[in-house]
Structure formats: C-alpha cells, structure tokens
Amino acid sequence: MFSNKPVEIRTAPHLKRPQTVDVIMRNVVYALLPIVAFSVYQFGISALALVLTTTAVAMATEQLFSSLSGRGNTLKDWSVVITGILLALTLPPGFPLWMAAVAAFVAVALGKSLFGGLGFNVMNPALIGRAFVQAAFPVAITTWTPAFAPGRFSEFIPSTFTLPFMQPVPVDAWIEALNIDGFTGATPLALQKFQHINIDTFHLMFGNIEGSAGEASSLLILAGGLYLAARRMLDWRIPFGVLAGAALVATPLWLVDDHLFPSPFFVWFSGGLMLGAWFMASDMVASPVTARGALIYGGLIGVLTVVIRLFGGLPEGVMYAILLANAASPLIASWTQPRVYGEQGRERSATRAGSTGGAS
Amino acid sequence: MNLLNLFRADGTFSHGGIHPVDHKEQTAGKAIRRLPFAPRVVVPLSQHKGAPARPIVHVGQEVVRGEPIAEADGHVSVPMHAPATGRVSAIELWPTAEGPKSPAIVIDVYQASSQEVLFGDEVDVDSLTRKDIVQAVKDAGLVGLGGAAFPSHVKMQPPGNLPIHTLLVNGCECEPYLTCDHRVMLEQTDALLRGVRLMMRATGAVQALIGVEDNKMDAVGAISDRLAEGDMVSVHAVQARYPQGAEKMLVEALLDRQIPEGGLPADLGVVVYNVGTLAQIGELLPRGRGLIERVITVSGPGVRKPGNYLVPLGTPVSFLLEQAQADETANEVILGGPMMGMTVASLDVPITKGVSGIVVYAQGDADQSRRQVYPCIKCSRCVEACPMHLNPSMLGQLARKRDYATMAADYHLDQCFECGCCAYVCPSNIPLTQYFRIAKAINREQTALAG
C-alpha cells in the first residue's frame, strides 16, 4: 500500500520553534504602545499626530524602496513600524510634522533601505533619522513645550502644522498664554547641566517635565522592556549593560560632588536613557550577537552617554552614544567570538601533557 | 566543582541546547512488541561507517535466520546475519536512506518457517579474554545503535593504545518522539548491565557511568535497583535538554570535561556506548549470535498505532508503516528523530542497524509547512542555542556568500555536528543546519580534489 507512494524529502531539523521575526517585531510594537499612549496623554493630539506621521512616512518609504529593489512586501515583518514609533518618541512633541516626515524618510531610506533592508542596517534607523534632523533643524528639535497643558486634547501645539520649508511658528506666546507655573522651556537634563538644578526623580518617572515625546514614561518603558526580555525577544544584557555603564561613571562623580554632578538615579531616569537602553540599543541587528559582546556594547553606550552629558557640549548624549556603539558593534563582535567547545579540553589536555612530560 | 553546580539538580552540558516538545508520551508507556516478518527483507552491505561487508552467499541459496551472510571487509567493517529464514533472491542495488542505491542482499522470507534462530553456540562469557570479547562484538556485527552506526569493536581499541578508564553509557535519548532506548532500559535491564560489565572488562574501564535524561526516572530506578552497594557501575540522571545525548555533551554532563577540538573521547580516557548497543552485546554474546533485529520507535502524527517494535533488520519502511497503521496521507517519513534524522526518498528503504525510530508526518501537519525566510536579524538566539558554542549567525552569513573556506578556517565549521538547534530557534527561518551540511560537504570535496 505504501510501496510506491511518493514522499516529501526534507533535511533535518524537521522541528521549528514558532516564534518568527514578525512575531518578535509585533511584540516590540505592543511594548511600545503604552509609551505612545502615555505620551499622547501627556502632550495631547500633537504627540499623536507626530507618531502617526513618522510611522506612516516610514512605512511608505520602506514600501517604496522595497518595491524599487524587488524585495516585495516587507511591511509585514513589522520592523519599520518600530522605527516609525521610536523616531516619534525621540522628537519634541511640538516638532513640525513636515520635519518629522523628513526624519522618517531619512531614517528608513538612509538608515535601512540603503543597506539592504531588515537585517542589514549598520545603525539604528530611527536614530539616523533623528541625527539628521538634529543637524538640519537645531532650533525646532530643542523647542520644548509643557506637559499636561490644558486643552491639549483639543488644540494642536502651534508649531506642529508649520508649512514645509518654513520656519516653525514660535511657541513662546502660546506657552505664555497657557500660564503654567514653573515652565522653564528647558529639559531636566539641560537644567542640570547648565544651571545645576536637579529635578526630583519622582517627577522624571511620572512625566511632569518637558522633553521628547517618549522621555517621560520610564516606568512604562521598563515594563515594556521587561516584558520583551521575559519573552526572550530582547537581550537583557544590553539594557543591563547600558544602565550599569552609566552608573559606573555617574556614581563616583556624584559621590565627589553631588551639586555639580547628578545622581545615578537621575542619570537613569532622565532624558532618553531608558528608552534608548531598552528599545534602541537593543536593536538586534546593530548589536553584537555574543553574550559578552552585548554586555560590552551596552556598557559602552552607558559610559559614552554620561561622558557626553557631563563633559560634552550637549545636554543629552544617548543618541550619539548608541550610534557610536552601533559602529563599534562589528569590532566588539569579532573580539568576543564564542569560545568553542573543546578549547577548554585542549588547554587542559595541554597542561596534562605538560605535567606528565608530554607522554604519548 | 564550580558553584553553579550547586543550583543544578542534574548534570548537563555548559552552553546552549533547546527544549523542544518531546512528544514521547505517545510511545513511552508502550512495551516492546514483536512485529511479523515482512515477505521480503533487504540487507544492505553498507549499513555502518567504514567498508561495506562482503557477501558470502549466492543468489538462490537458502539462509537460516541468524546465519552470517556477509563478512567484514577489514578492521572498520562488520559482518551481516540473515534477519529471517528464506531464500536469497537477489544481490543487487537497492535504495538506501542516504540517497544513492547501494548493493544489498535480498531475501524472500519463508512465511511458513518458525523463524527460530538455529545459529550460534552458547558462550561462557566469563572465560573470554579482552581480545575475545572484541572479536565476539565484531562477529556479532554490532554497530552504534543510537544512530551513528559506527562499528562497536573499533572504539574498544582506541588509536595509539590510549588507556580507557571510564565507560560512559548513553541512555539520554534526547530526540523528540523516540522511546526505544527508554524501553530497552526498562525491559532489558539485565542484558544492558551484562553488556556494560563485558564492555568494562574488554576496555579496561574501572568505572561505568550510565547517563539518563531526567524525563526517564523510571529507567534510572530500574537500573539502580539492580546495582550493588559500592558498584563501579552507577546511573546518573542528567537534565532533559536536547542534545544531551550527543557524545560530547554527555561527556561534559557526566565528567565536567570537554573533548578537545578534533579529538576523541579516548583522549580523556573515556569511551561512550549507547544503551541499545550494550543491551545487544549483553544479549548476543553469551548466545554466540549476530545482530538480526532491533527495537524501533514508530511514532509521529501520521501513524495510528505508534509503539516500540522489535523489528527484523531489512524490513522495508513501507511494511512498518502498514503495521503501525500509518495515515493514508502520510507523505514524510523520517529515519531517526526529527532533529537529526533524514527523510527517506523511497518507502522501499529497509531498516538498518543504525535506525532508532521512524517519525511519520501526514499531509497538512504543521511541522512540515514551508515558512518564509527573513534576513538574519542577528538576534543571537542561534549563538545561545549552539551546544558547541559556535557562531551560527556568522556561519550562516558566510554560507550565503558561499565562503565555505572561511567558515572552516575561522569559525570552526568542522566542530558542528548538525544537531539542528540553530535552525530550530532561528526566528528568520534560515535553514542554518542545512547550510552547514552543504558547506561541510563542499569543503570535503575540495579537500579531496586538492589531495
């Protein structure tokens, strides 16, 4: 009955774990959604418009280059959605939408598609986009608006709808009209750096600060990151390395002079460090594959971030720290190639042979 | 002993490994049953590593079950015995699991025969010298029954006369679905321990460690019940973690040492045998018989009567499928386990000495659906899963560029034993193990050409 039946030929292994790329990427998006929701709650419909713009433009750019290069539909791997959302979270909530669209286009076109799409990018695409607009629009990217402004769900921040290639509408008058106590127009990091005013870590955690759309929800970032780490969709060593590296540099300085230098807690919860550590440094493609490499890479980001923040010209250094570490990633990977099974035995048998006078 | 061992209930290897769903519940509780004889059995002359055996029968000759029908050709070779009483109808090319056809002795089985084994004389194994035991193992045609099919007597005399002090007995059976070794440990415990003690005598090993995965604690119990106080044979539960049953992993799990790269267990004074092989040694040597049948697990979603069957060697796979009531839509048959076994190209392929199981998939089983391949996202899961601690991600990228020489020279390709962990975990569905198999084959050809 079975004698002449044709059969399938395949080669081992015949079993497969079902967790595929699209599942992982989709879960990263899920983990990002609470952060997006909080930023919308915090900054209102302008933040929503921002994230929708960057995500839509990122997806359109991906589709454009994928079809140009004959790679078919690559949207369904979900990775470009992450880029779009992450980019929005690194921008000021009132960032002009046309500039955000430029950032998203650059992020995907130059940061990802140029290298060959998913899996081939050298650096984190979202940060490439942000680095581009940081250089191109230095004023707009440091124009901060207050959190929890009244009427934020019915009214856009005036700069949001700046016409393309026009200077953004100044928001000073608008902010003044809001009449919010204690608004400084500076991020906690800038206050700390230039005026040595330390904002209470409590405020940092619960978002009553000025800053980028995704900076203020450290606890949600932590929760999302831990969810991914628990499902093994994120290498815990990278955020661990970032936070450890940052604390390593910040703690001794803080112990020496706690007025001039911020506490390690402040360093962790201020600016983009949490978001960077859990969602950007951990970009699998641009980080080393080895366990030791991941720790070194994470540590490098943490150290660089604090060094840039405290001794560089900018109040925030996460972006450049991650981009630099991305660039160093292949080098770190080649230094930390895994120690192959049998090397241990080779050394041991060498010592054994040595101790017995190299018999046999 | 390092501190971490305090937190581990059982021994295991140091890096990597996976926990696939083991599906063993389908057959683990099923006692070994004998199957009827197929109308025709096919004995390939090359079903072991090394030189093919030389036939000593001619077409038309009648053979009795257990009678030698082919002799070993050189040291790394073993003889064959008739698995059934019948008449040699042909000595011709026959499809094999490996792919190419190879010479085989075809026997038309006498259905009316009692199939009694009339061949072989009782042997007093206690009077055998070390050399006699080695010869007896060779004469019995024994090879590694765990799947390697390497002639057993060769490992008993390691090259360079390296002294052996430890016998490791592999009862891990880490492949999903397979339960034949489990049943052998439970039902043939005495034969197994007889084989272990014979092997210790033959190799000069002063101790024997039996490693069993901790999902088979009943087997651990059955063996330890038969061990005396202070016995030099001991049984150890090791972690159920694929590929615990790989030789290198088991050595590390039980002895906390690694076999040097490119070396043999004998370099550590160790020799490793599968429980099935030793049980057959314990069974066959005292009776002076040859290997003519073995226990096989027939399982998988495509069979309605899965079980552990005692099968005459040479039984065609198609006959086994009928006996196990395979689904009519069965369209993929794996010899061995699903992680390392190969699919057969033809169901006429006979069961050989190294086949430990058959896993059958029917049309539409999720396990065989084709999957979209994404680019490598460097997620490092393969690096974490590789029990040899290689870098499959890098190896895979090099394989895509067909840079096979660099793979071997800089990334230890030859250390890969194709356990399949990397391909199993890869979220991009990249066929890594398959790439490496091709790379190694091409490197071998290149070396052969250069040589």
Summarize the structure.
Chain A has helices at 21-43, 45-68, 79-89, 97-111, 125-136, 172-178, 188-195, 201-206, 218-230, 237-256, 264-269, 273-280, 291-311, 318-335, 343-355. With 360 residues, chain A is mainly α.
Q: Can you put this structure into words, describing what you see?
A:
Chain A has 360 residues and is mainly α. Chain A has one domain. Chain A contains 15 helices and no strands. In chain A, 52% of the residues are buried. Chain B is α/β, with parallel strands linked by helices and 451 residues long. Among the domains of chain B are: 3-29 and 121-287, Rossmann fold (3-Layer(aba) Sandwich), CATH 3.40.50.11540; 381-450, no CATH class. Chain B contains 13 helices and 17 strands. In chain B, the strands form 4 sheets. Chain B has a 6-stranded mixed sheet with strand order 1-14-13-17-15-16, with helices on both faces. Chain B has a 4-stranded antiparallel sheet with strand order 2-8-7-4, with no helix packed on it. Chain B has a 4-stranded parallel sheet with strand order 11-10-9-12, with helices on both faces. In chain B, a hairpin with an 8-residue loop joins strand 5 and strand 6. In chain B, helix 10 (392-400) packs across helix 13. The longest helix of chain B is centred in the C-terminal third of the chain and has 19 residues, at 432-450. Chain B is globular, with a radius of gyration of 22 Å. Residues 1-9 of chain B have low confidence and may be disordered. At the A-B interface, helix 1 and helix 15 of A face helix 8, strand 15, strand 16, helix 9 and helix 12 of B.
